[in-house]
Every structure is written in structure tokens, then in C-alpha cells.
Write a structure and sequence with these properties.
5 strands, elongated, Tetrahydropterin Synthase, Chain A, alpha+beta, about 25% helix
Length: about 120
């Protein structure tokens, strides 16, 4: 079974390796969806949504929300941000669940997906 938890955070960045308006400093309200896979446990849950929130808050949001992403990730494109988030979370969940996907929306109509199947 797959379970999903969504988050929002605001950050600024610029893309020094890009030629166009995104090479200038600008900000986004990012939407993040974390997907886990596992079996339903004896408590009726695959994994507690509140525990997902704690893990994402500590390992991702505290480092990215209201930050200059260029101080955290080199040339922070949406693709590189998603990879960074996946790497931060990959080993943070117990053995009975697997992080299968991180999806990051830079705008309401533009997103990237990083995960086991990608």
C-alpha cells in the first residue's frame, strides 16, 4: 500500500548555470509530496502521518523553509532539490516502510519526481 503526505515551504534561489530569468534571485512556494510503501501493521496503519511530518520537518523543512536554497544545494533546480530531499529522507524511516517517491512542485503546473522507480 502507498501512503502520501504533503507539505508546503517557501524558499528563494537562483540558477547560476541557467541562462534566462531564473538566473536571478526569485522565490517559490514549493509543494512537496512524500510517498511511502508498506504493509498495514497491527495498529491499522502503514505508518503514522504525524511521524512522517516529524521526519520531514526535521530533515527537510527546517533546512529549506524560508531559506536561500543556494546556501544548501548547488545550482538548486527543482530536479536537484528533489534529489536532495530524497537523499535526506531515504534512511529516516523504519524497515517496514520504504520511501518510494518524492514529488516537488515548483509551481502549480510544474513538478519533478524522484524515487526508486525513476
Amino acid at each position: 500500500m502507498l501512503i502520501h503526505k504533503e507539505f508546503k515551504f517557501d524558499s528563494a534561489h537562483h540558477l547560476p548555470d541557467y541562462r534566462g530569468k531564473c538566473e536571478e534571485v526569485h522565490g517559490h512556494t514549493y509543494k512537496l509530496r512524500v510517498t511511502l510503501e508498506g504493509e498495514v501493521q497491527s495498529d491499522g496503519l502503514v505508518f503514522d502521518f504525524g511521524d512522517i511530518e516529524k521526519i520531514v520537518q526535521e530533515n527537510v523543512l527546517e533546512k529549506l523553509d524560508h531559506k536561500d536554497l543556494n546556501t544548501v544545494i548547488e545550482n538548486p533546480s527543482a530536479e536537484k532539490i528533489a534529489i536532495w530531499i530524497y537523499d535526506q529522507l531515504e534512511d529516516e524511516f523504519p524497515e517496514h516502510v520504504t520511501l518510494t517517491e518524492v514529488r516537488l512542485w515548483e509551481t502549480a503546473t510544474s513538478s519533478v519526481t524522484c524515487g526508486k522507480q525513476v
